[in-house]
Amino acid sequence: MTLASRVLACSAVLLGLGVAPVDAQGYHLARTVVLGGDGGWDYVALDTVGHRLFIARQDRVMVVDPASGKVVAEIPGLNRAHGIAFAYETGHGFATSGADSAVTMFDLASLRVLGHTTVAPDDDAILYDPVTKHVVTFNGDAHSASVLDPGSGKRIGTIELGGGPEFGVASGDGKLYVNLEDKAAVAEIDAAAMKVTRQWPLAPCEAPTGLAIDRAHHRLFSGCRNQLMAISDATTGKLVATVPIGQGVDACRFDAGTGLAFASNGDGTLTVVHEDTPDKFTVVGNVPTKRGARTMELDEKSHRLFTVTADFGPPPAPTPERPRPRPSILPGTFALLVLDP
Predict the structure, then answer these.
(1) Residue 16 is inside which H or E element, if any?
(2) Which of 81, 111, 129, 154 has the highest local Cβ count within 10 Å?
(3) pLDDT per residue over 129-138, tens digit each?
């Protein structure tokens, strides 16, 4: 066998085994941009039409140009900001505000606040379903989802979930999926009927938070607080596999173009998982990020990842209300981290 034949044969074997492509292991921290500003943070959302990053920042949403790293605007009036969603058909954006059970609707062109809608306690993650044209919030303490009209911003329905929801995704066929953190399960929702159609356990996963979807193969990727990613089949409603991830996960993403799933972990790592086949998954890397970088967003065109964090000081003294206080955030250190493949 010639050398060329050997190379071709080895390549065929590797492809047959579903070995991850070389660039799957090439993710690295390419740029850190200090954005500053006070307050904590939560979800990061990419506006794919306007090419802007929206970052939930305690009492506001920070809007950033990802190319320049400059803050272009801030959307005020939130109280414990969590998630952001975009309804491009109506030109409206939506942001959840967990402490006051409110959703802020804003104009995507001007970023002007258009109004506020009261939903249920602890509204956290939010999504827009283009099939039913509904905006849906997932309300942790209320164990429910609130459904809003994307044009008026008014609440048009409530879905009882039977557990505390975390992140949710739309499958593109009118079904929604959401992690139930307290039940270690996934719930499937009929978005048009506004009801849960089924639920399945994710054991040995505990406290699932972040969620991503491979729509082509109907796979769901749940990031679990016991350092696992639980991958389930949305068609059969069964767990397919688990793989180890870092500690403190709060977001997952899936890149259909590369077959890679990601988990951003508060311990300062980003776990990269390759989908070898729809039933076989391999961890191909744990990329160093920075402590506290627990949420993220993916640009599926460039395959670039964005995460955010800050520098931390010592925690304040414990109190009866807060027996385990979080470390204090050092002023002016909040930063955007950009990871390139």
Answers:
(1) helix 3-17
(2) 81
(3) 999 999 999 9
